[in-house]
Every structure is written in C-alpha cells, then in structure tokens.
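Hey, I'm writing a tutorial for new members on how sequence and structure tokens pair up, and I'd like a real worked example in the thread rather than a made-up one. If someone can provide the structure for the chain below, I'll link this post from the tutorial.
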Amino acid sequence: MQQSQQAQQAQQAQQAEFDFYINLKKPTLGLYVKKGVGLPDLADTKDWQFSGHVWQSELAPETLKGLEANGHAFQELGG
C-alpha cells in the first residue's frame, strides 16, 4: 500500500495544481486559476470564494485549454 501512495505522490508532483473558486452570487459558476496566483484579473473579487485545489488530471481537456490560453477557466457546475 505504501508503494501505491508513493506512486500517486510522484504522479501528483509532475502535474500542475490549480485553485478553484465558486461565485457567491451564482454558485453554479466555478473558476480555475493556476495555484497561488489569486484573482488578479477580476475587478470584483469579493464575489468569489476559494473552494480548494484541483489536480490537472481532474480537469476536462477543454478546461485545461482555457487555463493554458488565458491563465484561467470558467466552468458551469452541475449542469
């Protein structure tokens, strides 16, 4: 079991990690940004609440493309 955990940790170390925020006014809207950058491009950050971290492997390919192209990606949740 320990070897499996080590393999998982090694895989995660090679992956990018992203921060995930939820819009408080529209809780079905999420926003992914690169880990640690915060929300510098948003004029009104008080509408967004940090919700946790997400590994690259947990994101859909189109979301990753948006992150690579723009530094952030929005996603409708639960739809």
